[in-house]
Amino acid sequence: MSTTSRIAHFTTPSFVPRAPFDDPGADVILRSSDGIDFHVYRVVLSLASPFFKEMFTLPQPPSEPDVPTIPMAESAVVLDRTLRFWYPGAEPIAMPTLDELRDNFEYLIARYDMQFIVPFAKRQLRAHVQEHPVAVFAISCRYEWKDLAREAAKRSLSVPIRDVCDSPRPPHLNDITADTFHSLLLYHSQCARVATVPTSTLEWINRSDETPGANCTVGGGHSCPHDDRIWNYANAPGRPLVAWFAGHLKRLNATLANSPLARLDSPEVLTLAVKQMAACPFCKTNGFERLAKFTVALQAKIDRDIDSVELELNF
Ligand SMILES: [Zn+2]
């Protein structure tokens, strides 16, 4: 995969480098592709990058001026942004976008081999994992950051990434191979299989007086109808279930099939169950508290079970 063809270049004829890149005491000049000079110290570049270290160890021709100029492939805007990412004393650009980060990594890590920035780079990238989990996964795989790739993959379980028809294409997918993307989809699918089990059976939880709808005495076709199916609990096989709770489990099941770590306590998820529960004189007195308690137990069960699913990364 080409690493340079993806990088954006800008023309900035009026760009004026700010401190510390205007230091007249600096001993080397980096000249951007659009002709702007950045004054820097070669010892700093040498410590940061094996690329520059090797360059400065080469014998210099006698005609070389005291302050040599190194032509750079990057534009002034890009050079300023990438230098500010790590150069001592430089004020960094606040909150770089995902695209800017990706470009920074490509210049600093892939091109100039600045491995020391990796911990900071990962922290910056992690700030985008909530909003762009698949993109963060892809970029992490590009640099073989397994820990962040796994974190991003887990975060992707909160969104229906397998629903490719109705979802926008995640950025930076071309950073990974089809094989790696398949691993992510397989993980997502296996987690969905695991996450939907506790809403299709209640055999993982004991039935008690705290169970939603338990001991509702208004059933039997009156104001609190019951589900057609008989449900098994861990300690109580063959029990009926009030219809509003059974319906809630079915809707949760459908949600979890697409998004295995969807939030189960959001108003969108709970509203219909609460409305239906309120129609029953018995369930409405305690149903919400019982449902909230059940939701906490269900979420914990799903979290535990998903932790047993392995994401295969071939790097
Ligand atoms: Zn009821």
TrEMBL record:
<protein>
    <recommendedName>
        <fullName>BTB domain-containing protein</fullName>
    </recommendedName>
</protein>
<feature type="domain" description="BTB">
    <location>
        <begin position="26"/>
        <end position="95"/>
    </location>
</feature>
<dbReference type="InterPro" id="IPR011333">
    <property type="entry name" value="SKP1/BTB/POZ_sf"/>
</dbReference>
<dbReference type="Pfam" id="PF00651">
    <property type="entry name" value="BTB"/>
</dbReference>
<dbReference type="InterPro" id="IPR000210">
    <property type="entry name" value="BTB/POZ_dom"/>
</dbReference>
